[in-house]
Specification:
The protein contains 10 helices and 19 strands. By secondary structure, it is of the alpha+beta class.
């Protein structure tokens, strides 16, 4: 999710938990047009490690929540994405990509089947454009939920916490969804997240969000975490950040996201960008997204130029930083196809100096989703 072009504090939006964040001493900063908590007093490192060992609570209410209704909603949505939307059974959800006619990625999103509707969770900076793009093609996009908050409870202890409040929720399989009442609030809950850990994303009415969050924070395993820890967690998990690692100039093939193109859709090729994507699958691409392990301790940030051994430009870092669980600097980026093999040595040009690095497998830290 890229920052919104507008970062004027006077016009930043806030989430339903804004007052709670400030009361708990969060450091706030502009992100995607919202004033969001970046970290709390413990700091990004502690919040990151707490998520890996216990349970971290993230406010992700800036994300968009869209509702699609109608018996043919899944059929119509397949006109915009390469995934198998018809194959999502009630009580399940799936990750997919919103594509343009050139095969570029307009957004990445989750699609959940609640029986009477499909619920979409889209990126904050893209949600208005997504609603227009989808709405002009699917008449049944009848709800853009501004009256709900979205919380992500992530970490190995998340299921223990949820079990105390709702055994039904704790019994959900990975990528399962349900409508339940938890701690007195009617929620839409999924067993998913974007940290590489087991966990849950919970949509709750905005006017009940603060009380619901405080109920979770009252559990001994739970602590608030900000966007700083969320970013380092998803980077260790090798997960893409829209606007950095994927965008309209990136195709699913280049991004190593070909698994999002369903087998059935590869027989009909009836989704946006199918001609270009099919050609890339058959003939290859000039660049690929890879993991990168810089030598030493200095991190390489987004925008860092990657050079080959012969000093020609090899690519660009799209996400980079320190991996607290990994214990060193890590990065992702795009490199020329001929250099995208594991162990390939490259140079990262950091402040005018060459920093050796190697192409590394993703994820940097193994996923621990429940299976």
């Amino acid at each position: 999710m890229p920052d919104s072009p507008s970062t004027d504090p006077a016009i930043l939006r806030t989430t339903p938990l804004d007052a709670l964040h400030r009361r708990l001493g969060a450091r706030m900063a502009p992100f995607a047009g919202y004033d969001m908590p970046v970290q709390y007093a413990a700091g990004v490192m502690a919040e990151h490690l707490h998520c890996r060992s216990q349970a971290a609570l993230f406010d992700v209410s800036h994300m968009g929540q869209l509702s699609l209704t109608g018996a043919d909603a899944a059929t119509l949505l397949e006109q915009l994405v390469p995934g198998d939307m018809l194959g999502i059974k009630p009580g399940r959800q799936r990750y997919t990509l919103l594509l343009d006619e050139a095969g570029g990625i307009l957004d990445d999103l989750m699609v959940a089947n609640y029986g009477d509707r499909l619920m979409l969770v889209v990126n904050a900076a893209c949600k208005e454009a997504d609603a227009v793009y989808i709405g002009t093609r699917i008449a049944q996009i009848d709800t853009v939920t501004h009256d709900r908050a979205l919380l992500a409870l992530q970490g190995p202890a998340a299921v223990t916490v949820i079990a105390r409040l709702s055994p039904e929720a704790a019994a959900l399989p990975f990528m399962g969804v349900a409508e339940l009442t938890i701690a007195g609030s009617p929620v839409w809950i999924s067993r998913s997240g974007y940290t590489g850990e087991d966990g849950f994303e919970i949509s709750v009415p905005a006017d009940q969000a603060e009380a619901f969050a405080e109920r979770l924070l009252g559990e001994p395993e739970v602590a608030f975490a900000g966007l700083g820890a969320r970013d380092s967690l998803r980077l260790e998990a090798g997960l893409c950040l829209y606007g950095n690692d994927i965008d309209t100039l990136t195709t699913p093939v280049e991004a190593n996201l070909t698994w999002t193109i369903a087998k059935r859709r590869r027989t009909t090729w009836d989704f946006p960008g199918a001609v270009a994507i099919r050609d890339q699958l058959e003939h290859g691409v000039t660049r690929l997204r890879v993991g990168l392990r810089p030598d030493g301790r200095a991190p390489a940030r987004a925008g860092t130029v990657i050079a080959a051994a012969d000093d020609t430009q090899a690519g660009t870092v799209t996400s980079g930083g320190f991996g607290p669980t990994f214990g060193g600097p890590i990065a992702m980026g795009y490199v020329r196809r001929d250099l995208a093999t594991e162990g390939q040595t490259l140079d990262l040009l950091v402040r005018g100096k060459k920093m050796p690095a190697r192409v590394a497998p993703l994820p940097f830290v193994p996923h621990r989703y429940v299976r």
